[in-house]
User: Which sequence fits this backbone?
């Protein structure tokens, strides 16, 4: 395991806030912190923050076909044989005090399928003020010559990530019991930065407890490119359906002979109008293409933008500032 670099009081990255509830969250977080200190009977004013990188179960276990909200509705099951991701530049700061800012510039290529269930520490800082660190961020950039290879990553695959400037390299298949599986092997250069990360209940950042180690998870999701819409807003109010038929339909879209393997070239030739019907009921997997940050003209546009949305915080928590790198 590579050592963690620690750099305290680094200059914070400029942020572009999208939501204005942080003041309330700050008061709530400080209240929790006061309770923790009181319970411990300690007067310590500092603690340790550790940010761990973890994969969502959709990466390690796949996504099953079914009728549940998080199942694939059109009969396909998605599984991965490889899921490499370039992750790093973990950071944390306090919005009310610019001097309270830490970062770790290390960037690594990770085998997300092979990570321990405990995750990998991509940032650890000791001696932090025991307060609400309400600005958590990290990057999934394009790999380069300075990018490290995390333990467990195939060296040849890691070199490919670095020389081709990839953010992700994923391989897998969609399958149905009575059909030939459809495979894919996609190299994706779609760097994205994530800041102002919130917990699933919408609270900003994490409160560092006095006298101990507070841990938080940076979570990479693996099912967004089978979503029926771009992941913004509350999914319970704006349902997202999961459908994969469009991948099978892309086979041969560039004029090549269909071979049950979908390439990037086929996705680039597959028009969004043909890939993603916008009319029909949920069971027919209709799509809403209007909320994407950029126009979706092809299936490849859809994949690239969905891949830019994979970074999350504390499980299902979102990051309110997503920006292309």
Assistant:
């Amino acid at each position: 395991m590579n050592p963690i670099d620690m750099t305290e009081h680094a200059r914070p990255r400029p942020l572009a806030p999208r939501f204005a509830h942080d003041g309330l969250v700050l008061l709530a977080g400080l209240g929790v912190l006061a309770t923790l200190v009181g319970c411990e009977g300690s007067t310590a004013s500092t603690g340790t923050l550790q940010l761990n990188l973890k994969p969502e179960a959709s990466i390690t276990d796949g996504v099953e076909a079914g009728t549940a909200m998080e199942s694939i509705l059109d009969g396909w099951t998605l599984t991965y044989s490889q899921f490499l991701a370039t992750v790093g530049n973990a950071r944390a700061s306090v919005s009310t005090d610019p001097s309270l800012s830490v970062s770790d510039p290390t960037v690594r290529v990770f085998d997300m399928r092979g990570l321990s269930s405990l995750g990998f520490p991509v940032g650890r800082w000791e001696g932090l003020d025991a307060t609400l660190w309400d600005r958590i961020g990290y990057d999934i950039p394009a790999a380069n010559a300075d990018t490290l290879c995390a333990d467990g990553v195939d060296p040849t695959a890691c070199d490919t990530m670095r020389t081709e400037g990839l953010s992700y390299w994923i391989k897998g298949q969609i399958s149905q019991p009575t059909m030939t599986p459809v495979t894919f092997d996609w190299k994706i250069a779609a760097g994205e930065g994530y800041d102002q990360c919130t917990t699933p209940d919408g609270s900003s950042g994490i409160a560092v407890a006095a006298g101990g180690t507070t841990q938080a998870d940076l979570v990479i999701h693996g099912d967004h490119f089978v979503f029926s819409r771009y992941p913004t807003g509350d999914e319970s109010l704006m349902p997202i359906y999961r459908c994969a038929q469009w991948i099978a339909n892309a086979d041969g879209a560039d004029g090549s002979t269909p071979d049950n393997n979908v390439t990037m070239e086929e996705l680039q030739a597959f028009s969004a109008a043909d890939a993603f019907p916008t009319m029909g009921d949920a069971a027919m997997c209709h799509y809403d293409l209007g909320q994407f940050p950029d126009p979706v003209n092809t299936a490849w546009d859809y994949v690239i933008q969905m891949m830019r949305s994979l970074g999350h915080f504390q499980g299902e928590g979102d990051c309110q500032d997503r920006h292309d790198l």
